[in-house]
Amino acid sequence: MIIGPKQEGNWYYDMLNFISQGVFPTDLIRDERKRMALQSQKFVEVAQELYIQGIDNILRRCVPDHEQKAVLTEAHQGISRGHFHGDTLGKKILQARLWWPPTVLKDAHEFANRCNVCQRLGQPIARDRMPHTLVLALKPSAWNTRNKYILVATNYCTK
Asked: Domain residue spans in the chain?
């Protein structure tokens, strides 16, 4: 039996125990056991960690309940310090090949909406945005047949 924090009723450890040893949680009724057996076909155990294989055939590491807040915090305000909106935050988590039951995107939205910094700063308004101006305009007469390349400079700011 694989032991984990708050093991009773925890989807991660229940599924990991079933995948590795074929042991159902004791509190499941017959229909729930059938459902768990069907759902388990998408999961794989690698080095006592649970992974799910998506429809794109990419293995994503399943994140236990007690690690989810740390993952959300790191993706939202960690090293990248992006303070991204919920959609982008959820996509970043999925692109990092992490997953938890279907609430990843909902949890990301809720986390971003509760962020104190994001609430104080809000969305940039139109007058604060940088104007898009043409840096250099080339006239057709400026083209020379001896030149092979055109140098283009772009001033790009994120967010």
From this structure: 1-62
Q: What are phi and psi of 109, to 5 degrees?
A: -60, -50
Per-residue pLDDT of the chain (159 residues; tens, 9 = 90+): 455 444 545 888 889 999 998 888 888 889 999 999 998 999 999 988 999 998 888 899 999 988 889 999 988 887 766 777 888 888 888 888 898 888 888 999 899 888 888 777 766 555 555 555 555 555 555 555 666 666 666 666 554
Closest CA to 97 of 135, 45, 62, 147: 62
How far apart, in whole angstroms, are the C-alpha atoms of residue 40 and residue 112? Answer: 31
**Nearest alpha-carbon partner for 99 in 73, 62, 135, 140:** 62
